[in-house]
TrEMBL record:
It comes from the Bacteria. Keywords: 4Fe-4S, Chaperone, Cytoplasm, Heme, Iron, Iron-sulfur, Metal-binding, S-adenosyl-L-methionine. Residues 16-257 form the Radical SAM core domain. This is Heme chaperone HemW. SUPFAM superfamilies: Radical SAM enzymes (SSF102114). The lineage of its organism: Bacteria, Bacillati, Actinomycetota, Actinomycetes, Pseudonocardiales. The keyword Heme applies. Pfam families: HemN_C, Radical_SAM. The keyword Transcription regulation does not apply. Belongs to the anaerobic coproporphyrinogen-III oxidase family. HemW subfamily. It is found in: Cytoplasm. Probably acts as a heme chaperone, transferring heme to an unknown acceptor. Binds one molecule of heme per monomer, possibly covalently. Binds 1 [4Fe-4S] cluster. The cluster is coordinated with 3 cysteines and an exchangeable S-adenosyl-L-methionine.
Length: 397
């Protein structure tokens, strides 16, 4: 395990810097309440006490970004910035503007940079959207999860069912062309008509991007404890598959097409470029408590607790909690795992001979497109998307 500020970036990692997409991820660790399904590195005010205020975090963030630019030498301007959490919208327009200013001052922004912030609908307003649009944000991602009140209660979500749609309209009115709504499907107690109603609300909102994720019961969460006690059942795999097919059919009919297994966009311009950077092996610096970074085959992650994060940076040291250099085998596995999830698929020549043979077998089983395989790419079929992880295992085993 590494100790703070022993980050080692070898020459091979830095040599290609700037030839690959380069993004900056900023982790905001603050939440008003904790959702029962969430295992992200987030903290409520009661959990933090007075030991780590947002002002301290922001000062630490500025120091980390300055140290990051120094450590990278002459880093490229950021092609994309993604502010996630946590609940970034709790910072308000001024706080989010200060975050982007810190990135701009340390790294600079490409002329056509995509700048995204996640937001909880309950902590947004027309004034917030107008303020962050003026500050330079180009994309907003809103956590909706469901339009059904009883589903939101199971997830411990506090927003009212209609608020995400209203927030999306406010964001568009403020000048945002690109607005995303997040859904979670497969929550115990969610009926088909509940999911249909959620999708109807999404389509009514007129957004150009939708992310939809199957509910996963993560160890250590309140949801996992409820499942363990028998209060609610585990999500059912057959229900999850049927939900996914319904999602895909309704979104496709409305003109939103999948470009990654869990993401749909109305156009190529609406796709999330920052996440595409992850999926296509780009470089990024992850700033903030617990954030992960990757440059040229070297991955590292920050210490998790905000108080330790800020204290480390107060000593002018990077808050590195650990790092690893990916082996050729690691990088191959990750490339197959990530690129295969994309609608464009994976070049067949990225597979070894055994993988290529297995790809042909997967096509015969209806999991990969035969036509695309003949054209030199491994592309998941509709059925293959439901079994994407299993297909990856076949191609790399």
């Amino acid at each position: 395990m590494s100790t703070p500020d022993d980050l080692h970036l070898p020459d091979f990692a830095l040599q290609g810097l700037g030839t690959r997409p380069f993004g900056v991820y900023v982790h905001v660790p603050f939440c008003a309440t904790r959702c029962g399904y969430c295992d992200f590195n987030t903290y409520t005010a009661g959990e933090l006490g007075s030991g780590a205020a947002p002002e301290d975090w922001l000062e630490g963030l500025r120091k980390e970004l300055d140290l990051a630019a120094q450590r990278l030498g002459r880093p490229p301007a950021a092609d994309t910035v993604f502010v996630g959490g946590g609940t970034p919208s709790l910072l308000g327009a001024d706080g989010l503007a200060a975050v982007l200013d810190a990135v701009r001052q340390s790294f600079g922004l490409a002329a056509d940079a995509e700048v995204t912030t996640e937001s909880n609908p309950e902590s947004t307003s027309p004034e917030l959207f107008a303020g962050i649009r003026d500050a330079g944000y180009t994309r907003v991602s809103l956590g909706m999860q469901s339009a059904a009140p009883h589903v939101l209660r199971v997830l411990d979500r506090t927003h009212t069912p209609g608020r995400p749609v209203a927030a999306a309209a406010e964001a568009r009115a403020a000048g945002f062309d690109h607005v995303n709504l997040d859904l979670i499907y497969g929550t115990p107690g969610e009926r088909t008509e509940d999911l249909q109603a959620s999708l109807d609300a999404v389509l009514e909102a007129g957004v150009d991007h939708v992310s939809a994720y199957a509910l996963i019961v993560e160890d250590g969460t309140a949801l996992a404890r409820r499942v363990r006690k028998g209060e609610i059942p585990m999500p059912d795999d057959d229900v999850l598959a049927a939900d996914y097919e319904l999602l895909d059919a309704m979104l496709e009919k409305a003109g939103l097409r999948w470009y990654e297994v869990s993401n749909w966009a109305a156009s190529e311009q609406a796709r999330c470029r920052h996440n595409l950077g992850y999926w296509l092996g780009g470089d990024w610096w992850g700033a903030g408590p617990g954030a992960h970074s990757h440059v040229g085959g070297v991955r590292w992650w920050n210490v998790k607790h905000p108080a330790r994060y800020t204290a480390t940076l107060a000593d002018a040291a990077l808050p590195v909690g650990g790092q690893e250099s990916l082996t050729a085998e690691d990088r191959h596995l990750e490339r197959v795992m990530l690129e295969l999830r994309l609608a464009d698929g994976l070049p067949l020549d990225a597979l070894d001979d055994d993988g290529a043979r297995e790809a042909r077998r997967a096509a015969a089983d209806g999991l990969l497109s035969t036509r695309d395989l003949d054209g030199g790419r491994a592309v998941l079929t509709d059925r293959g998307r439901l079994l994407a992880d299993a297909v990856v295992r076949r191609l790399v085993s």
